[in-house]
Amino acid sequence: MPFETALTKALGIRVPVVQGGMQWVGYAEMAAAVSNAGGLGILTSLTQPRPDDLRIEIQKTRRMTQKPFGVNLTVLPTISPPPYGEYAQVIIDEGIKIVETAGLVKDYVAKFKAAGCIVLHKCTTIRHSLSAIKMGVDFLSIDGFECAGHVGEHDVPNFVLLNRAREQLRKEDGSLVPYIASGGMANGNSLAAALSLGACGINMGTRFMATVEAPIHHNIKQSIVDATEDDTDLLMRRWTNTARFYRNSVTKAAAKVERESTSGKFEEIADYVSGKRGRQVFLNGDPDYGVWTAGICMGLIHDIPTCEELLKRIETEARDAVMQQAAMFKEDSKL
Ligand code: NAD
C-alpha cells in the first residue's frame, strides 16, 4: 500500500521524498531519475550558467520523465550575483508547477504563486518559517542543523525543529501548514521518524548524491560512502552564512583563515569556498580539489543504489518501522 500524505497528494508523487536542489548536482539526469523512481526530482536553477540554459535543461528533463519534477531557486550571497529574476521568469515561462525556494525570495514567491506554482520553501528556523507562511508558500522544508550546505545560524537539529514546526506552523485561520523534514534524512527510518514528528515527507540531498544516476564523479560517491557522521566542517559563520561541507584539506585551510584573519574580509576565504572550484570536485573526482557540501547523514550512507532501488527500500523500511511501532501498542493492549 503506497503512502498517502499531503505531499504525495499535492505533488502527484508515489513516495513522499523530495530530492532537494543541489548546486552542481541538480541536472536533468538527477531530477528525472528521482521522479521516474516515484519521488520529486528537482533541477537547480543556478547550476545552469545562464537562464536560457535552464530553459534547455527543463526541456531535456521533460524528455527524460513524464512524472512531476520541480525547479529550485536559491537567493543567497554569491561571489558573482546571477540574474535571479531572469531564472524565475524561465521557470514560469516553461510552465513549471512545482518550485523549491530558499533564501531571500519574497518577490519571486509572489510571482510563482501568481503563476499557479506550488512552492516548497526551505527554512532553518521557526521564525523564518512563519514569515514564509505569510509570503504564501504551500509547504515548508524544515532544514535541521544536520543538513548539507547552508545550515543557518541557530544550530537547531531536527528532533527539536520538526517538533516545534508541529506546534507552531499554522496559518492565521489556525490550519496547519504542511512541512517536510530536510537535513539528516537518508533512509526509511528517517522517513518514519519525520512522519512521527508531524512532517508529510522528507527532503534528501546527500543521499541522492550517492546514487548510480547522480551526475557526479564515482570517487565522490565513494567518498560519501566511506565518510562518517564526523566528516563535515562548518565554514563562514563569521559572515553569517554558515555552511556545512565535506571535511577535506581545503575546508581545514579555510577554517584556519576564518579563525585567524584579522581583516575579517570575506575575500580572504573566497577562493577556498568558491563554487567554481567546488564544481571541479564533481567533475575530476578529487575530493580535495575544493569545498563541496555534504550532510552528516553521510554516516548512514553505505552503498550506491539506483534511485529506484533507494526509493523502494525507503518505502519498505518506513512501512516496517511504522508497523513495528503500531505493533507495540497491540502488545500493550493484551497486558
Ligand atoms: P559562490 O562561488 O558564489 O560562493 C561560494 C560560497 O560563498 C557560497 O556558499 C556563498 O553563499 C558564499 N558567499 C559568496 N559571497 C559571499 C559573501 N560576500 N559573504 C558571505 N558568503 C558569501 O557560490 P556557488 O557555489 O557558485 O553557488 C551559487 C549560489 O547558490 C550561492 O549563493 C550558493 O550559496 C547557492 N547554493 C544553492 C544551492 C541550491 O541547492 N540551489 C546549494 C548550495 C548553494
From TrEMBL:
Membrane spanning segments where? none
Under InterPro entries, the record lists: Aldolase_TIM (IPR013785), NMO (IPR004136)
Q: Coiled coil: which residue ranges?
A: none
Pfam families named among the record's database cross-references: NMO
Superkingdom is Eukaryota
Write the record's keywords in alphabetical order, separated by commas.
Flavoprotein, FMN, Oxidoreductase
PANTHER family, per database record: 2-NITROPROPANE DIOXYGENASE (PTHR32332), DIOXYGENASE FAMILY OXIDOREDUCTASE, PUTATIVE (AFU_ORTHOLOGUE AFUA_5G09600)-RELATED (PTHR32332:SF28)
Name of the molecule in the record: Nitronate monooxygenase domain-containing protein
Lineage of this protein's species? Eukaryota, Fungi, Dikarya, Ascomycota, Pezizomycotina
